Amino acid sequence: xxxxxxxxxxxxxxxxxxxxxxxxxxxxxxxxxxxxxxxxxxxxxxxxxxxxxxxxxxxxxxxxxxxxxxxxxxxxxxxxxxxxxxxxxxxxxxxxxxxxxxxxxxxxxxxxxxxxxxxxxxxxxxxxxxxxxxxxxxxxxxxxxxxxxxxxxxxxxxxxxxxxxxxxxxxxxxxxxxxxxxxxxxxxxxxxxxxxxxxxxxxxxxxxxxxxxxxxx
Amino acid sequence: xxxxxxxxxxxxxxxxxxxxxxxxxxxxxxxxxxxxxxxxxxxxxxxxxxxxxxxxxxxxxxxxxxxxxxxxxxxxxxxxxxxxxxxxxxxxxxxxxxxxxxxxxxxxxxxxxxxxxxxxxxxxxxxxxxxxxxxxxxxxxxxxxxxxxxxxxxxxxxxxxxxxxxxxxxxxxxxxxxxxxxxxxxxxxxxxxxxxxxxxxxxxxxxxxxxxxxxxx
Amino acid sequence: xxxxxxxxxxxxxxxxxxxxxxxxxxxxxxxxxxxxxxxxxxxxxxxxxxxxxxxxxxxxxxxxxxxxxxxxxxxxxxxxxxxxxxxxxxxxxxxxxxxxxxxxxxxxxxxxxxxxxxxxxxxxxxxxxxxxxxxxxxxxxxxxxxxxxxxxxxxxxxxxxxxxxxxxxxxxxxxxxxxxxxxxxxxxxxxxxxxxxxxxxxxxxxxxxxxxxxxxxxxxxxxxxxxxxxxxxxxxxxxxxxxxxxxxxxxxxxxxxxxxxxxxxxxxxxxxxxxxxxxxxxxxxxxxxxxxxxxxxxxxxxxxxxxxxxxxxxxxxxxxxxxxxxxxxxx
Amino acid sequence: xxxxxxxxxxxxxxxxxxxxxxxxxxxxxxxxxxxxxxxxxxxxxxxxxxxxxxxxxxxxxxxxxxxxxxxxxxxxxxxxxxxxxxxxxxxxxxxxxxxxxxxxxxxxxxxxxxxxxxxxxxxxxxxxxxxxxxxxxxxxxxxxxxxxxxxxxxxxxxxxxxxxxxxxxxxxxxxxxxxxxxxxxxxxxxxxxxxxxxxxxxxxxxxxxxxxxxxxxxxxxxxxxxxxxxxxxxxxxxxxxxxxxxxxxxxxxxxxxxxxxxxxxxxxxxxxxxxxxxxxxxxxxxxxxxxxxxxxxxxxxxxxxxxxxxxxxxxxxxxxxxxxxxxxxxx
Lengths: 217, 217, 331, 331
Ligand SMILES: Nc1ncnc2c1ncn2[C@@H]1O[C@H](COP(=O)(O)OP(=O)(O)O)[C@@H](O)[C@H]1O
Ligand SMILES: Nc1ncnc2c1ncn2[C@@H]1O[C@H](COP(=O)(O)OP(=O)(O)O)[C@@H](O)[C@H]1O
Ligand SMILES: [Mg+2]
Ligand SMILES: [Mg+2]
Ligand SMILES: [Mg+2]
Ligand SMILES: [Mg+2]
Description:
The complex is a heterotetramer, with 2 copies of chain A (217 residues) and 2 copies of chain C (331 residues).
Chain A: E1 5-7, H1 8-36, H2 41-62, H3 66-81, H4 85-97, E2 105-107, H5 108-126, H6 136-148, H7 154-171, H8 195-215
Helix pairs in contact in A: 1-2, 1-8, 2-3, 3-4, 4-5, 5-6, 6-7, 6-8, 7-8
Chain C: H1 11-22, E1 27-30, E2 35-38, E3 48-55, E4 72-78, H2 84-94, E5 100-105, H3 108-123, E6 128-133, H4 153-166, H5 171-184, E7 185-193, E8 211-214, E9 225-228, H6 232-246, E10 254-261, H7 267-283, E11 287-294, E12 303-311, H8 314-321
Parallel strand pairs in C: 3-4, 3-5, 5-6, 10-11
Antiparallel strand pairs in C: 1-2, 2-4, 7-8, 7-12, 8-9, 10-12
The structure holds adenosine-5'-diphosphate (2 copies) and magnesium ion (MG) (4 copies).
Residues 33, 37-38, 40-41, 83, 181 of chain A line the site of one magnesium ion.
């Protein structure tokens, strides 16, 4: 099997599908956030991705490489999503592109590095740890699986990553929130899934689905 | 009959008796003021005259003449009575003494001039006219009688003055207030006697009573 | 009544003590008289400028004591005129021999007490003159006044008369410029919630959740009309309309604008009002020489605002721009 | 909800327009970005100082833009952090090549968004550094923060970092002095009535007629305890006690004092609190170098106050005394 190469169109498709996902899951995410937060997570993401879709053609045509394209996407999310998830997800995309400057296609291994950079940006920005009941509870264990399961084929490997993130999101249910707005609820946050943990595995699943399309599964 | 001469002790006695009157009529005056004002006229006068009584011996011993004595009394009333009646009555006493500097006794004619000066001070200070439902409705017609009834003997003349002031006070009942706090009530002030008009004839009656004592009636 | 105080009867004294404690190098308090003066009074060769009135309008008036504005401020009890003996004390403290000028707001009590004090001072050989400020276009007569009330425009009188005096002007010249300000300054206010005088303990009036009061004074005395709460832009239009009716301004005129908060109004709202007032003036071709936005003449914790316009000429502009250094107003 | 506004969604934009309309010679607004800058930015050879945060805390922060304090302020929606693209705009506007210093209050959202903007600016070759202000001794963690919140003490950071930058200091030196202020400044607040964010339309919390909330933040987030309303003196004691526990001061130390109103507190009450704070400090032999009383960091129309103490050394004293000319703070 030839090496898995991801071109710029791959990333454009991913963003389009993420925008579609967010519209579909908006109410679900907002509902989760109204249980333990301020009930705007789905709305926040929707505002950001709608603006991204509006500008997608333009930024795609202007960006010289994948790095710039993702930086622009991240900037729009930064400016429009607001709240906590704005800088977190915005930073994720900006940093994901940071190491692939000048490239118009990347390898699967490079994609893993991009995701690692993105997750590191979330950790650095939010300073949350696993167990704080945030998206970090999905991303960190997921990323460990993604990096470690070098024995698996790309699709299986990425599927294991998403699967682990999904478990990580489930794992937030019994936790007491230690970061973000849910913190103020203290013990009362127990029994609810963290909305950001939920949105994060869903967004990563969009990448998985696009990988599958490429390898023609 | 010898000319009626009023010495400094006369004025000291008048002030003492006014203070006594105010204590006796405090509730009555306050009641009138609560009908159409802010319910403090009796209280205001009481605070002022009590302070005057406290300092009475001292100021009497320090004042070189009747003028200074009355000025001091007026100053205490000015500083303690407050509200509208403070400057009005305070000014009354200060101005009453203004023309009798250097004197330790005054004639009955001079007393009339002193009262005229006092009333003028009230007119100048408050700028109220007859019919505005204030103490001016008592003082002005009263003063006219006092000045004009030159045919009467002193006591009768002064009694006519007080009698006319009392009538003037009664005349405020059907009026609509045009000055002072009662103004805000507009038509609703009709049917109530003005507290300042009431206190003014009562205070002047104290002078009458002291005149009577002197001539031995 | 919710207030951060110790005792309703001690609010004025304790407030003045707290003020002087904050500015010990600039201000001093005449013990027991509720008179705050510049520390350097009497200022040699300068007409002394005093003002005062009931308390509850802070920073008016003690906050305006300092270089280029007042030499002394006399504080009465809340919403109650100070007494002539207090005022006399202030007059004596600031007189350098050049005379004393009193800036009095047009309330019957204030006018009577300041006049009385002036007469007493004159008996002691001090030259005293005054101006009566009546900038409020809302009503001709109110509970507290005969004729129009003095409200936020008073601060502009302090500023301009103060600057004139600081330049060494005579009492007559200070009076002339103060009267020029009074002739050219107009204000109009509104409120959305009342205030509670500490000694009274209950609100001065009540307003429905959706009502506002237009044209009311700074003691909670009733306004000219009660209306449904309007937008900031509509309020700005209504207030300025009243002023224009009373003092027509034409294209080319220049004004100073004061958007004054009554105590509990967030600055955000004052700036939103200023935005519209500024637009209205620009549309009419009226130049805005300077704008003041803030709490200048308050009514305890009343929520609402007033708009003041002062029509300027070159002299007034210069005096407005002159140096001033007081706790509440610096230039 | 009673407010003098046009529309809850436009309050921030309209407020900033009204602010810039009031100070057209000193301030300008970056269109559509809710960024207010000095009119003369970038100031040659000067480290640019920026701050910002959610709106509703006026005059913070746009009111402190001007000579000797901030070069720019970035406004978020009410009680919501501004976004990195806005902040980046401010950074670019004020950078003269000497770097940009950010004064950030310790709220998770603010810290994340300012950090993000700094990284973006650095990618564009602009040197950026920051200080995180966490003066509130009330709580270690709150709804909005990890660690202590930044409240009124922030204004003293603006003043001192601003003065240092104005003198031509390097970015590292500005940072060093700002961190010295943060290390030596402590605040504690209380409230007797809540505020209503315009877009929310209802009060952030409710308090009984006889209750007060101690140690609450400037977004109406809960405090550390709810108590029966105390006297001004007792409140002053409680607030300063908390500060002393956290930052022991001894006889001979010198401090700057800030008595800050939360928006709807009559100045009278702030001065009554200052009176007692001043007495407490004097009794302990602590010198009061300077006192600031007023609305510096508000919470819309919340009624209440905070007390801030900044322990001074000679450097801080000089910088505090340096010239400053901004709409809300003049020296
Ligand atoms: N410090 C943090 N680190 C990582 N994730 C965080 C942090 N704070 C919040 N989050 C994530 O952000 C989500 C909430 O996002 P959102 O509702 O859009 O923002 P806000 O809380 O400002 O309304 C949370 O569910 C959590 O997963
Ligand atoms: N302008 C005025 N001229 C003459 N008398 C006045 C004037 N204003 C008020 N008064 C008198 O003062 C009285 C009220 O006095 P008082 O209750 O002591 O003062 P206040 O009205 O300030 O509470 C009124 O009943 C009226 O007679
Ligand atoms: Mg949320
Ligand atoms: Mg939110
Ligand atoms: Mg009365
Ligand atoms: Mg009264």
